[in-house]
Amino acid sequence: MAAIEGMARRAKAASLILASAPTGAKNAALEQMAKAIEGRRGDILAANARDARATAALVAAGKMSQPLLDRLTLSEAKVLGMAEQVRSVAALPDPVGRAQYAMELDAGLELFRVTCPIGVIGAIFESRPDALPQIASLCLKAGNAVILKGGTEAQHSNRLLAELLAAAAGGVPGIPTESIQLVESRADVQAMLALDDCIDLMVPRGGKEFVRYIQENTRIPVLGHADGICHAYVDAEADLAMALDIVFDSKTQYPAACNAIETLLVHAAIAPRFLPAAARRLGGAGVELRGCERTVALVPSCTPATEADWRSEYLDLILAVRVVASAAEAIDHINTYGSRHTDTIVTSNEETAHQFLKNVDSSSVMWNASTRFADGFRYGLGAEIGISTNKTHARGPVGLEGLVITKYLLLGSGQCVATYSGATARPFTHRPLAGEPRGL
Amino acid sequence: MAAIEGMARRAKAASLILASAPTGAKNAALEQMAKAIEGRRGDILAANARDARATAALVAAGKMSQPLLDRLTLSEAKVLGMAEQVRSVAALPDPVGRAQYAMELDAGLELFRVTCPIGVIGAIFESRPDALPQIASLCLKAGNAVILKGGTEAQHSNRLLAELLAAAAGGVPGIPTESIQLVESRADVQAMLALDDCIDLMVPRGGKEFVRYIQENTRIPVLGHADGICHAYVDAEADLAMALDIVFDSKTQYPAACNAIETLLVHAAIAPRFLPAAARRLGGAGVELRGCERTVALVPSCTPATEADWRSEYLDLILAVRVVASAAEAIDHINTYGSRHTDTIVTSNEETAHQFLKNVDSSSVMWNASTRFADGFRYGLGAEIGISTNKTHARGPVGLEGLVITKYLLLGSGQCVATYSGATARPFTHRPLAGEPRGL
Prior knowledge:
2 copies of one chain form a homodimer. By secondary structure, chain A is α/β, with parallel strands linked by helices. Chain A contains 15 helices and 17 strands.
């Protein structure tokens, strides 16, 4: 606990230095980090091989899944790809120091709301070693110190990566080594949750029980999502072939992803034509359907669904199916049972589409597109630190813009409020200004 | 508890309708609310007179302060001013539906990040009846439902105001009456804190113990500030007359305000000239000084300060004073003891000013201006719902922009992710788009 508190205090001190680091210094640090990954790739592969061996034994014993081992295991190409990812973050525009609001309050009294770093980020991520350099790069580019906690299966990989990235960054003047630190146990994470005076934002990724535990056990703001209960709604006026493709892609392209659909909603008018065809297409890919009464009547092979199915995130080849009477009923179902992650409508009716886009209360709402597009890279954000279903700060796939906050800067020439108060109050000009604060 | 939960569920349902309310309907509701205040001004004054009589008895008994009674008591002019405030919110641009990010992912696959309402706001405010219409207007303009809880001393005023504003808003087609609701007891607030599935944001204003209680006892995000420990730093290169004016205004113009200074930091090189003059000027206004050793040596009448003084929000005519060796030491003091609210530097050295503006980690940082400017109206935001010292979502005086969040809208023409994956992946175009999503 004391060790973690000391670490968090060093991260806070580092963040106050990083906050005024120029873009050039941050990019130089990112370049040194990329070079360190390339230069130490042999050591990284050796550390990763230790992790992979231990995990392979667990897979053989049936205690871990093969996909986890696949994501954990690095190759030389993957390591070089990690370096390129760091360089791609260096190539993104600096999110710090941008004026969002600029207003003259009076002659010689100018106000700016500028973006600035948040401070210290606590980032917890799954057993994929490539997540570590990506998260560390995004945090550093946005001027934040980060305390990282990766999946235990990747501990040797993570330990080496964090050590060499911190040293590489810290070698650049103006960038503290303590900008990047690593903790290794769940107890360390537990200790972090109490440090709301040092840690400004937690970004947990991974299993929903774990994310929910973080959300429920800290006063630190948490960015992320626990559940991904996503829906596709096939409207009465859908193009049937398009609907089949989108539903198939949204369910089967990567069923374990948070943005894969778990429930299919189908308008009653089109259900008799659509559902049997969908059952054949999805059944061919091994998808088990669990349907409402009307679905079962149209697709006799379908298992009856219970109320629990509408609230389930299967993350597997299972799909709940419900026939609805209208787009409004579909929207209501999604807002009631969904997790505000990603939902799509298939329709050729623009008015119905707009109704869906406006009224579905989710972080990504789509029209005639697969829910699987909900991703920072696909969205063109460069990289993502996670997907948020929060209703404050940042929502949806979160890139650099979610890792900054703002501060107001007021540049005066001796003004006092008494001058602008009372019976002889001098009026404010409140004239919008163009551009950034001079010289900052 | 059950009553409050039902109220919160009705607010949630109202918010889903409000989310797609056009600007015209929201502004019509605000105009009806303004008219209702004007039309019912006699009843409002009568209800307020009941509150004022009860509070006057408490003031006479020494259980309440006269300034509280002054803020509570309405006049006809104040009531008409409340109606004008509602109209001024109608005149502000609609914060909903603005595209912050627009990107073509591929031909016929367009992504927009647009602002949208947060949902349901829980707003708790002091015993000033004019706060109620202002908060209700801001929430409605941003498309949010609000559950209001005002100071108990204003209960009759608040009850009537909430009732007539809800009825006036609800008379406009497309605006639910349940967009504005009122709760009346601390137990109701307690019940609200558990309803994180219905209430999306709490905005508490008022005493710091109360705000801290809210922050520590709910999973709902909280926007606001508990402490306002603000500083003025008088640099070695300050214009002495300007520094005297700014320090005097920042401390005495309204000592009970959260943006009044509590600590004065003075560079050692200027302290022998500045501090005796400051002590005379502030002493003339009845300000008690509590100084560090060096301050006491220069101003013998000054009480010695203890460590607790650096952490105190007096909200009164008391000022802690510390002599520092450098701007860096001043910045370090502020980041250590401050509450990240509002801090100012007085200096004619631009480089020192920039160092202060960049490195002081506060929601408003000022150069040659009084801290008392930190206010939504003075900042030109039109109105403020509160001042936030949070490091996420919104920081500083918060206007309409802090009452919205974003959602991603992806408008496609049948695209699936499989097309953009694997060995024959179609590349994304990632071409920035100009403007808003068509027709939305």
